[in-house]
Specification:
Layout: H1 9-17, E1 24-29, H2 41-50, E2 55-60, H3 68-73, E3 76-82, H4 89-98, E4 102-107, E5 125-129, H5 144-157, E6 163-167, H6 175-181, E7 185-187, H7 190-193, H8 198-208
Length: 210
């Protein structure tokens, strides 16, 4: 939703409701963990009110532990924190699950897949950042393909049920290859919202990955 038109948020949400998208992906940025501020509670409240599909919330913030209850109240179904922002990641993941949300862990482009080894059996989703987080509309980093392959192997090795989500620069050029390498969830922002017909763009993307 980061790439949507916030001046017409209600209709943008309705477009997604009526499209083939499965989830709403919501990027919360604090201007500290990433060099940009996106939005917080007021926008989340609008999403909660109108969205008819699960809210997949991606916290790009420092000290996410302070806000886990808040994002549960705001209707998050999946809550993802950054491994780079969590000193006590295991505790954070358990807390998210205790609040009846699915727990996700995101890794920045420089963070190796091996850093997930001790948490992979505990998480419901791993979000692989395929751009440096902070802004919409950036170009896809090609080394992501290898990372997805490695992550898939790690998940199989530990018999984890974690979904692999790709976040950043997803488009019709890379969607098929990403799912072939093992990606389960693709986040598309600018590619959808900046296109002439977002509903059709979502349909095209979903055809490419099924
Ligand atoms: Zn995101």
């Amino acid at each position: 939703m980061l790439a949507c038109n916030f001046g017409d948020l209600e209709n943008e949400i309705k477009m997604v409701n009526n499209s083939k998208a499965n989830w709403f992906h919501i990027d919360v940025m604090d201007g500290v963990f990433v060099p940009n501020i996106s939005f917080g509670t007021p926008i989340m409240n609008v999403l909660k009110k109108y969205a008819k599909k699960p809210l997949d919330v991606h916290l790009m913030i420092v000290n996410p532990d302070k806000y886990l209850e808040k994002f549960a109240e705001l209707g998050s179904e999946v809550l993802t924190v950054h491994i780079e922002a969590c000193t006590h990641l295991h505790r954070t993941v358990q807390k998210i699950k205790s609040l009846n949300m699915k727990a996700g862990v995101a890794i920045n482009p420089h963070t190796p897949v091996s850093s997930l080894e001790s948490i992979i059996t505990e998480v419901d989703l791993v979000c692989v950042m395929s751009v440096n987080p902070g802004f919409g509309g950036q170009s896809f980093i090609d080394s992501t393909y290898q990372k997805v392959k490695d992550l898939k192997l790690l998940i199989e090795k530990y018999k984890s049920k974690a979904l692999i989500e790709i976040d950043g620069g997803v488009n019709s050029e890379n969607a098929t290859k990403l799912t072939e390498q093992g990606a389960d969830v693709l986040v598309a922002g600018s590619f959808v919202f900046k296109s002439d017909n977002p509903t059709n763009t979502i349909s095209t993307l979903s055809t490419l990955i099924n």
